[in-house]
Amino acid sequence: MDGHALSELEGVVLGVVWKFGPCTPHAIRSHFFASRSARFSGSAGAIYPLVARLERAALLRSRSDRLRRQRRRLYEITPAGRRRLVTWISPPFRDQDVGALHDPIRTRVYFLAALPAPERRRFLGDAEAGLRRTLDLMKQDLAGYRHAGSHLSVLAMRGAIGLARAQLRWLAAIHDDVVRAGARDRG
């Protein structure tokens, strides 16, 4: 880990620990599970080993803590971890950082010809309904960030809302083309 650019997951984990203060790996996982993004896994198999690697690289440090009868480890970012976080956040950006975003719906549309036309319609309807639900939840999150006075979180959520709205427009625009393509289209 020393000397190489942080992966997105490493950068996000460092950012979560920096932003929310000393926390357990479980609290980091909870942050991922509460997120509207499905980009990263909050699985124990991903987070616990990553936190251990960040600690071995001296980007995080831990201390023992007791919560009721349970012993736990609280992690905080080190000065070296903060420097790496700042480097990760800062330009210049790699092409993959500013290219097409991870989008499971778009990926599935690429292979949608495998489904018969009625299933394609169902796919598009379900995708739209899911996006609308997520958009409603993001609007609630936005209101919470505003109430908390978290200006940068408000800006980030506005970006997520804008992307969800653009994705809804894209789904509406392709609906007729996808359905009309029929079985003849192999992608």
Order of helices and strands: HHHEEHHHHH
Structural class: mainly alpha
CATH architecture of the largest domain: Orthogonal Bundle
Radius of gyration of CA atoms, rounded to a whole number: 20 Å
CATH superfamily of the largest domain: Winged helix-like DNA-binding domain superfamily/Winged helix DNA-binding domain
The CATH topology of the largest domain is what? Arc Repressor Mutant, subunit A
Describe the structure.
- The structure is a single chain.
- The protein folds into two domains: 8-95, Winged helix-like DNA-binding domain superfamily/Winged helix DNA-binding domain (Arc Repressor Mutant, subunit A, Orthogonal Bundle), CATH 1.10.10.10; 104-184.
- Helices cover 65% and strands 9% of the residues.
- Helix 1 (8-20) packs across helix 4 and helix 2 (25-34) crosses helix 3.
- The mean pLDDT is 87.
- The radius of gyration is 20 Å and the shape is elongated.
- It is mainly alpha-helical and 187 residues long.
- Strand 1 and strand 2 (70-77) form a beta hairpin.
- Strands 1-2 form a two-stranded antiparallel sheet.
- It is built from eight helices and two strands.
